[in-house]
Each structure stands twice: as structure tokens, then as C-alpha cells.
Known about the structure:
Blueprint lengths: L2 E6 L16 H25 L3 E5 L10 H16 L3 E5 L8 H5 L6 E3 L5 E4 L9 E5 L23 E7 L16 H5 L5 E5 L5 E3 L4 E4 L15 E7 L5 E7 L3 E9 L6 H18 L4 E11 L3 H6 L1 H15 L2 E11 L11 H13 L3 H17 L2 H4 L6 H23 L10
Parallel strand pairs: 1-2, 2-3, 3-4, 6-7, 7-8, 8-10, 13-14, 14-15
Antiparallel strand pairs: 1-11, 5-6, 9-10, 11-12
Helix pairs in contact: 1-2, 5-7, 8-11, 9-11
Amino acid sequence: MVYRFVHAADIHLDSPLKSLALRDPDLAGLVGDATRRALVNIVDLCIEEQVDALLLAGDLYDGDQTSMKTARFLADQIRRLHVAGIEVYVIRGNHDAISRITRELMFPESVKVFGGRADVIEVERPGGSFPVAIHGLSFAQSHAPESLLGKYRSPVEGAVNIGLMHTSLGGASGHDRYAPCSAGDLGAAGFHYWALGHIHKRSVTEGACAIVMPGMPQGRDIGEAGPKSVTLVTVGDDRSISLEERLTSVAEFDRIEVDVSGAEDWRGVVLAIEKKLATVRERARSQHLVARLSVSGATPLAWRIRRDADMLKAEADDRASGIGRTWIEKLDIACTMPESGAVQPGDPLTELDRLIAEEIMVDPAYEAALIEIAEELRGQLPAECRDMFGDDEATFRGVLAELGREGAEEVLARLRPAGEEKVQA
């Protein structure tokens, strides 16, 4: 008899909003509730597919949470699985290790939470079915600098062995180093399937041993862009393993570049945004699309786009609403004036632009003052915000130079006289 399970990880239930750009209360509500809705989708999938088990490979929670609302919601979803006869196997990840909910919530007997010592659970199966053994190890601390693989029990002879592990593998951008190990080492451990967690991007290695990092089931900000999913696993009667990626995200973030170099007027800029949004919305897999727009291209309208960025954001919001289930998280301006034909001789703003570019920006005193201000600011920012300045001196100076240029363009744009009003389309 086949054995089927859903493998999920890194739900980060009720994770607080990270993005300062989520100022729209409706959008903030959508994103703030998305991890709950993703968990509901996971439970729905388990019940609809009548799987044997749900495997959660760490970071079910998000840090030091104490909300009883989170606990009650989780308990309700676990109860649905319990009633459906679906077992749940859980390991604690680095975020779970400091969660009070992890320590205090009582689960039904159908839920097995692995402790700080490696263990193996032999699954009760109908007579004549091949045996299944599930291995797991939770960490009591939020840091695990060394590999945990050597602590796992040996494979159960004659069984299909499934391992649950929270690991950064060989490392990934934006993720802490946690219980590092290689795919090669996992493959040599003698297991049939490794259910991994920790890295929020999906990756799959198939072969004699399937090694799956399902990614997170719901992105929380633009740094976790794209549709998110879990993995539905079927172990056949011949012990072959088949994998299916199943969508769970309610909303997906996406970076969208809109080239307005061909726009002749303000209306053309707005229509270019609408057209690109509609195209991306059509291919989006999740119910909602949350877009970060970057308006780029060389256009004589660059100064007005910068000056009236708030108006353009409102226009984009309006067009997104018309498309449906489409949201603008943020609008970035990256357009420039054309190199020729964009300036008038004797124009005071043109002369000011030249002075800034040729005299102020290249002045060592200006650079020194900018670095001093930025270093003071950087020291007051939380770690996740300091990352924007890079991790070496060259990157730091490059970021400052770019910010300086953008600031100058912003000032020049706001010095322009008022132009035409909003164009209705």
C-alpha cells in the first residue's frame, strides 16, 4: 500500500510585517493574514488528498511569539488533521527554538514533535504494507553551527527511511548558517527521502535519495518573491518516490520593471504601467499579486515622474484595482532624462544639474561628509536594514554615490514648475 505525505517548512505563522512599504491597511491586512491562510491551504490539501501524514521541517512559528490567538489558530488546524486521521511529524527550527508556543501548546497524540535527541518513529501501517521510519531531531537553541547529520539514527533496515532536518545546507543568501551539511552527505546517509527546511527557496535533488527543500508556503515581503508551495510525496508500492509541487501561497510578491522610454505624455506612462501589470497578473499563480514597480527608461518626463511620484503611485493603485487582486507594494523611480534634446541652454536648472554633477559630486569634501552621515545612520539601524549598504567598503561607497545621484535628481525634479495635471484615461 502506498504511503503519501505533504512536506512543508518555514510557515512562520503570524510573522510580523517586515516591509515599511505596506502602508495600505488593506494590503497590510492581506499580507499579515497570509501565513494563516497558507496553513489552511496546507491542511486542506492534506485532507483533500487523503494523505497519511504532514511533515513540518521546522520554523512553524516565528521567533518569540506569545499570542494565544496564534496558539488557538494552530490548534484548530491540527484538530482538523487529527479528525481526518492524518498524523503530523514536527521538528523545531531555529525560530521555533525561542517560541513559548512551542513549549506550552499541547498537541493530540497524532502529532509527534521530535526532541533535542535524534529519534526514529516507525509508522503504524496496514498489514502487508512496506514499513516506514521517520527520523527527526529538533534543536533547543536558535543557533546550530555544526552539522546535525552525525547525530541521526541509522536507517531502519527494510523500511522506507524519511529524515526531517532543518539545515542551511551549504549556505544561502539571506539565511543564517544553521546545521550545515552537503547534499552529498545526505544522499550517503542511506535514507530514501530528506524533508528539509530553513531555506525559503524551493530546491529538489532526485535520485536514489530524494532531497527536497520545499521553500516557504507563503512569502512575506519582496525578498521572498514568487509563488510558494509545498511538496506532495507519494511512495509507491515498489518504493519509488514521486514528487508534486502544490501551490499554497495566497499572495505572491513580484518585482516588475516598466520601461516608459516610449511614453510621450503622462497618460502614456500610466498606460505602460497598466499594461505591464495586466501581463504579470495573467501569469501569476497565486490568488493575489503584490507588485514592486520600478519605472525605468530615458524619457523627457523623468523629472515629472520623480516630482509627482505620489500621484503616479495613486494612478498605479487605481489601475491595479481595476485589474483585480493586484496590489502595489511600492513604486521606485529609475528613469532618466535623455542624453540629447532634454535640456535647454541657459536654463537655470540645467546649470544647477551641471554644477552638481561636475563639481559637487566629485568633491572629496562632499564624499567625506556623506560617508560620515551614512556611517552614523548605519550604526543606528537594525541589522536587516544595514544590509542595504553592503558588506565591504567598495559596495558602501557605491551605494552612497547612487543615493547621492538619486537625491540630486529628486531635488531638481521638485524645482521644476508645475506642469499639466493628472490625465484621465
